[in-house]
Design brief:
Number of helices: 3
Distance between the termini: 9 Å
Organism: Amycolatopsis oliviviridis
Protein name: Thioredoxin family protein
Radius of gyration: 12 Å
Structural class: alpha+beta
Pfam families: Glrx-like
Length: about 80
């Protein structure tokens, strides 16, 4: 099954930058597609995720927030 990881981010968020770097590295190693979206570009995203960025989604389901838990993410994508 091919997964897709989404990182919900915010401009100027240091934790978001770190999470994007981690996701890029891990997904690159595993051959998993990923994307990032700015929560402030959509009012619904801002309401849902705005106080917890970065938020990591796998196949549109929330996986975690604030930090990438690498071992847990790798297991979810295996």
């Amino acid at each position: 099954m091919a997964h897709h990881v989404t990182v919900m981010t915010r401009t100027g968020c240091h934790l978001c930058e770190v999470a994007e770097q981690d996701i890029e590295r891990i997904c690159g190693e595993l051959g998993v597609a990923w994307s990032a979206h700015d929560v402030d570009s959509d009012p619904e995203w801002r309401a849902e995720y705005g106080d917890r960025v970065p938020v990591i989604l796998i196949d549109d389901a929330e996986h975690g927030y604030w930090r990438v838990e690498e071992d847990r993410l790798r297991k979810a994508l295996a």
